[in-house]
Design brief:
InterPro entries: ADH-like_C, ADH-like_N, ER, GroES-like_sf, NAD(P)-bd_dom_sf, Zinc_ADH-like. The protein is an alpha/beta fold and 348 residues long. It has 10 helices and 17 strands. Strand 13, helix 7 and strand 14 form a beta-alpha-beta unit.
Length: 348
Amino acid sequence: MTTIAIESRRVFRRTDDYTPGTPKLKLTYEDLPSRLPSSSVLIKVHAVSLNYRDANIVNGGNPWPVIPHGIPCNDAAGEVIATGADVKTLKLGDRVAPIIDTENITGRESARSWLAADEDGVLADYLIFDERILSIVPSHLSWAEACLIPCAGTTAWAALKGFGIGKSVLIQGTGGVSMFALKLARAAGLQVILSSSSDDKLQQIKAQFSSPPLLTVNYKSPVWHEEVLKLTGDAGVDLVLEMGGTGSLVQSIRCTRRGGTVSQIGYLSRQDPSDLAELLPVLIDRRVNLRGINAASKYDMDDLCAALSAMQLHLDDIIDTTYFFEQSGEAIQSIWEGKHVGKLVVSL
């Protein structure tokens, strides 16, 4: 086993106090083990990105169990500064990021274990991970860009899989996954329709991504699916990236072409089973393929990193705000309030 020269780390843990207005994170100092397991590496973290899931967990809203007082966040990028004796795929100085479901290597595993839920997350200045769950991130990306890949990136990649040049996609929302998907979809030659409940956000993004002109729909309209149909000559889009859940799923299917696909990613709206009363007849009538998306495997993450490198695609234009490590609590509160467009990043 390799000896570790660094003795301790700074780390944020959840307080698990869900009372409104109380601190949700506590900064602590923890000892690192003196020796590194043979197949693991020590990572100096340079950036962590936040997801709505992080705010949901610290506020007690996650629908799945989480370990008590765990470390939040599942997206990080950093530099390998020590390697175990048997590490074969990584070396000192490599730029890496962990996958967020540490059991999901090939996509065929039956088990699951999510960072920041089933096990500790990544909001710390040093991390130790087994080499098998780490991907090498593109060298042309800044640390802030690279840390967007594990969750938002792989989720968008998996949700868009199978669709390319000339196809059409409806992307719901203006959060991190949506903005990453917008970038990938544009690069892949898809026609994009973006939806939001905020005209201001839609105008901001239309100005930012002006060529080719971005089609938009405000989903505050009770029949927003009809607006999507009009934009596609009543045919419907080939693919929907569905973020809302029960409140929007039926309308998403209604504006998908017959034989098209809905990638169900999130459940950000108020969840009410009565909204699904028409689900089965609409699903059958439209002959839509409904697929659940829960991030992606390590193989998918490696493929995404290769694609980003090949395209030399940058992601800085989908970062809304960057915070210092000490501001992590403020950053999570900000994402909870939902005022951002794109991603929030913590820099170390």
